[in-house]
Amino acid sequence: MAGLSDVLVVNAGSTGLKLHVVSAAEESRPIDSIEAVGAERLLAVAHRVVHGGAGFRDPVVVDGAARERIRELEAIAPLHNGPCLEGIERSAEAFPDLPQVAVFDTGFHATIPPEAATYALPRRWREQWGVRRYGFHGLSVAWSAERAPQLLGRGPAELRLVVCHLGGGCSVSAVRDGRSLDNTMGFSPLEGVPMATRSGSVDPGALTYLMREHGLGAAELERALERDSGLRGLAGGDGDMLAVERAAGEGDRDAALALDVFAHRTAAAVAAMAASAGGLDALVFTAGIGEGSPPVRARVCERLAYLGVELDPERNAAGAPDVDLAAPRAPVRVLAIRAREELIAARAARGVLA
């Protein structure tokens, strides 16, 4: 493989497909399609796979057995693992001689301790059926955990971070010493804070009530929670945050409520993750909403003033990643960091092949 240096990174998320070619120097360029890249310099194709379950913690070269296990986990992450498999199949057809490497979002969260990973459920569910907290958005959180110390001029061991990955999917993570300690997503990417079309956490009693008293079947319930809830369920439309902000500014009460619910749940999650991290030195916003929505950042931070979180309004309004948005003397720094999942995935693929 001498002379081969680039890694094609395929990131099939719940809201679309992102493709990047990453050089050995970690220079990244987006591309429009798998077929648009030539194979002459490619070392491998790296795939962000959302759910690795208990079987996959480290990146692996994809073979038949790995494909089948990823397919089995589609039942837990239907919006994600299916598109991941499609990406693997398409790139294998386009580049049949290249290794396909799966890099798992759940892998970074393998360090979550038992008290955070364990649900208070019957032993059979936990031990035989694997019902536990896995945590997601691991590639994004791993990059933020690396980038935040660089921006602040401090070592990872000195920082207690809470990372808000707010995009089509949303999660909040606790990180200390560069390691994950907790994540609001759990057994599936459905738990936690509200998202574009996903509900986030809901009282399970409400769900069993809907099944028992209103005849909702599992498939109907799953579709409603995955595709018709979150910002879409509250404000209508397609769940796009910019559209919700615009509608709220025009006096739409449903949109205003959606913003309040989103900010309230996110701020509450930050407080919970700060407890898991043992304190809070820096709050990180990343992904589409986290990077691009000053109003959302402001709404969340306003609710966290008691923790020492204070934005500089001008920095927040003008700030583009990667930047510190906190007021100069605030004890907690607030960072906007551009999500670079492709760099973590490419790095992991190189490590496997080395």
Describe the structure.
- By secondary structure, this protein is an alpha/beta fold.
- It has two domains: about 5-135 and about 340-354, Nucleotidyltransferase, domain 5, CATH 3.30.420.40; about 155-335, Nucleotidyltransferase, domain 5, CATH 3.30.420.40.
- The chain contains 14 helices and twelve strands.
- The protein has helices at about 65-70, 80-95, 115, 125, 140-150, 205-215, 220-225, 230-235, 240-250, 255-275, 285-290, 295-300, 315-320, 340-354, and strands at about 5-15, 15-20, 30, 40-50, 60, 100-105, 160-165, 170-175, 180-185, 280-285, 325, 335.
- The strands form two sheets. The chain has a six-stranded mixed β-sheet, sandwiched between helices. Strands 9-8-7-10-12-11 form a six-stranded mixed β-sheet, with helices on both faces.
- A hairpin with a 3-residue loop joins strand 7 and strand 8 (about 170-175).
- Helix 9 (about 240-250) crosses helix 10 (about 255-275) and helix 10 packs across helix 12 (about 295-300).
- The radius of gyration is 20 Å and the shape is globular.
Quick description:
The protein is α/β, with parallel strands linked by helices. The protein has helices spanning 64-72, 81-94, 114-117, 123-127, 138-152, 204-214, 218-227, 230-235, 241-249, 253-277, 287-292, 294-302, 313-318, 341-353; strands spanning 6-13, 16-22, 28-31, 42-49, 60-61, 100-104, 160-166, 170-176, 179-183, 282-286, 323-324, 333-337.
